[in-house]
Design brief:
Length: about 160
């Protein structure tokens, strides 16, 4: 099952949260650019030299694509993709809820803290300042996610205080 462009704002939000593992679900390998190896060279021993790699690691992996309303875009080259797997665009059940009877698993995977998003936001703001395709969309998605998480946290505190 696939979805095609235009992606809705809700789909863009879910896809981007999943790309950088801030959606609270089990981390999966993000959709990455097929050109992400460009510029990386290897010596005879197989050691990679990525000093002139074209694709950055601002999303936690090299060449993480960004979902936008016109589809996936690569912030580092002109790669575009006008479809996504439908399952990836649906908001997942947070692992913390799936395994709420197993506190250890919930602790390992479950709760995303809002401050965990800060370095990603710094990275994508910098990319947006350079005019990289999609970077501003990712930055805004991360800001929205951080606000949502912060709201949930304060709600949780209120419950404890009651
Ligand atoms: Zn690319």
């Amino acid at each position: 099952m696939k979805i095609n462009t235009p992606f809705t704002p809700a789909q863009v939000q879910v896809l981007n949260e999943r790309q950088v593992h801030v959606d609270g679900s089990i981390p999966i390998h993000p959709s990455t650019c097929p050109n992400r190896g460009d510029g990386i060279t290897y010596d005879a021993a197989g050691n990679a030299d990525d000093t002139v790699a074209i694709h950055g690691t601002e999303g936690g992996d090299r060449g993480v694509l960004i979902a936008t309303e016109i589809g996936w875009v690569c912030p580092h080259c002109d790669y575009r993709q006008d479809w996504a797997h439908a399952a990836m665009a649906e908001r997942p059940v947070p692992v913390g809820e799936m395994f709420k009877d197993f506190p250890t698993i919930a602790e390992i995977y479950g709760a995303v803290r809002p401050e965990e998003l800060n370095p990603l936001i710094v990275n994508y703001r910098a990319q947006a300042a350079q005019g990289r395709p999609g970077a501003e969309v990712m930055w805004f998605c991360l800001e929205l996610r951080r606000m949502t998480l912060a709201g949930n946290m304060s709600h949780r505190v209120e419950e404890v205080e009651r």
